Description:
34% of the residues lie in helices and 20% in strands. The chain is α/β, with parallel strands linked by helices.
Amino acid sequence: MLKTKVKASEITNLTDARYFSAWEVDFLGFCFDKNSASYITPQDVMAMKEWLQGPKFIGEFAAPYETDEIQALVDALGLDGIQVASDCSLEALNFFKKQEIPVLLETKEENIPDLPPSIGDLVDHLIVKMNEPAPEILKEICKNHQVLLDGGFTSDPWQILDQTGAAGIILRGGEEEKVGYKSFDEIDDIFEKLEILQ
């Protein structure tokens, strides 16, 4: 069991999915942006779901946000939520809210002041992409929102989590070294620091 929330993003293979599921992460993210190197087909996601249990399945989408298409994919795959970027319109966010689709909104730390005051009513989590730790920018928003930090931490994320009060972090999958095998040594180090010892 982990002491903080973790979302594993850009999952492209069952090896990653099973690894993160074994660590009991909160979310597994699957990229449906066809222009991304991390793109995965809906058929592959559906196949993975048969092997996994525990984490919530999140569809990661890029602009333009076709709300009807996203809803159809959520329904077809049984997704537990979606991730969109801060360029997603308030109209689209309101649509997802009415359809009771949980939303994780991705933004950059420098764009935090530009978020509309109503954002907390429309999204379940904020994902803040960071280049360097900037605790002062984050402290206030972490008081009122469930924030997941994407970057800005080393192999020991506790320093930035303690400084900001963020709810958790983002980790990523990657390519297999060969089918069914890859090394997780670096991520193991992070998880061991986040683990609640029984």
